[in-house]
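Data deposition worksheet. Section B asks for the primary sequence of the deposited chain exactly as it was used as input, without tags or linkers unless they were present during the calculation. Section C holds the resulting structure in token form. Section D is free text for depositor observations; keep each observation to a single sentence. Incomplete worksheets are returned to the depositor.
Section A, Depositor: J.P.
Section B:
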Amino acid sequence: MNIGLYFGSFNPIHNGHLHVALQALQQQPLDEVWLVVSPQNPFKENSGLAAEEHRLRMAQLACANQSNIRVSDVEFGMPKPSYTIDTLQALSGEHPKHRFQLIVGEDNLSKFDQWKDFDLLLKEFGVIVYPRTSAVPEIPPVLVPFQTRIHFLGGELIDFSATEIRSKIRHGESIHDLVDAHVADYIKQHHLYN
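Section C:
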């Protein structure tokens, strides 16, 4: 199978994340997308990060009705911070018949050369990039030698973020149009992001 791996803190998972996963399934030759819940992103500050078990459960709730989107906790048992190349190699070892590709936001492209073993990641796996702006993304010069391993998604731009959702929760505003109803209920039940 061809699997797209979409890594994130999913803090919380929202409709934009699902939109990206569905667009990748529609536009690329993928059989499934796996959402990989990351306990710790090496490039991000962890303040305001809900416990990994909560973020995993919310992702599972959001994907419950999606037949070709799965949720993975593979990084929970790996050394922290987790590096994408290590996870991809671990998954390839566990699933030798699957072919994996990475799904990232356009904002990651400009600093992709800062990722651990970025060249190996591109050579062995390749990257699917979803847009964050209306302009056609440019491939940074350092990535040009790998441009055949970089694929861009088209489609609607997502104009909200998990940061904005957490802010709405803190201010008592509704998030029901931004997240799955079961996720909204879970956040309320567990008093997350207050």
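Section D:
The domain at 2-161 is CATH 3.40.50.620 (Rossmann fold).
The first strand starts at residue 2 and ends at 8.
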